[in-house]
Amino acid sequence: MSVFATFIYGLSAALPLLRIDLRVSAAVGALHGTAMAAATIAAGLSLPLLTRAYGRRAVLWIGLAGLNAGVMLVMLASSLPFTLTGFALAGGFGSVMLYTAMAALSDHHGPAGPAAISEANAIAVVIGVAATFLLSLAAQSALGWRAALLFTPALTVVLVVTMGRTRLGEGPAASVRVTGRPDWRFHVACVVLFCCVAIEFCFNLFGAEVLAGRTGLDAATAATGLTAFIGGLAIGRFAGARLALLVSPARLLVGALSMTAAGWLLFWLSTQPLVAYTGLVVCGLGASMHFPLALAGVIAASGDRPGLAAAAAPVWAGLAMGAGPFVLGALADGFGTHTAFLIVPTLVALAVGGVLSARTRA
């Protein structure tokens, strides 16, 4: 999961710099997110078949190999078709690896699976912070930002060595069959998940650009803005597991969305770097609970059909990864990135409305 974090946060921080190298518009640059999204959807649809055919261990290594191939292609490529292909390869194979790892982790820990996944996500985000920080440093050095992408294959080597011949239990996920039809609450929960993932990716892909435009920082220095956001994510995910034991999921998610809205307002209005960084940290603290709680909502709304939730989650997440940043990029080309970032409170409002309308006693 930490290897995946180096890819997703590293390439997100690199996107503004990649756009400068390729000399493309915001909307064209956002196609990299669309490529990742399309590949993630394909990965979600194919993962059950791959797991049944080859088993988790083989699928995990396949995902790792494809992820690194995509990252290396982005690092070496200098034209749009190749960078788009690199993002798609890394996104698709990375998702295969990520969902396989989470399934194995959950099965291994049994009833403590959700807590284990929450802690693993927190650790992965810490590694993601390191990836963005390294990229910012490399961008300001003679090495250039592309050299920082070597962090992903380097950490992969560490993973391969430390895992050795560790066995991965196949668990029940490989044989789950989707049966029955969900009610309207399930579809609303999926829309909430869509909004939450879109919010995070809007910050990942355009937060640094808004920071540069409002504060006057250069693109390389503004890339550290993503580090501030991810730092908030890391702190929030470590603390969120404790809060989830005390507060109902729906109430906690509404609170987390409200915190993100408050942080966004502070970030969006500020022209001072320190205040803007503070806003990004607050946004990260709120966003830290979006995905796990929204995913829990999808699972709860599916009733006794966990297979349905497992199949739907990556599809909706993939749609959000592509649609949110692409719409923001298109709006940025027409109205400027700062104005286009109003899409964030719009998504927050939709998510809060969905949570409140679909609340159940469960």
Automatic annotation (TrEMBL):
It is a multi-pass membrane protein. InterPro entries: MFS_dom, MFS_trans_sf, MFS_Transporter. The chain crosses the membrane at residues 29-51, 58-78, 84-105, 117-137, 143-163, 184-207, 219-240, 252-269, 275-301, 308-332, 338-358. It is found in: Cell membrane. It comes from the Bacteria. Keywords: Membrane, Transmembrane, Transmembrane helix, Transport. Residues 1-362 form the Major facilitator superfamily (MFS) profile domain. Belongs to the major facilitator superfamily. This is MFS family arabinose efflux permease. It comes from Nonomuraea africana. The lineage of its organism: Bacteria, Bacillati, Actinomycetota, Actinomycetes, Streptosporangiales.
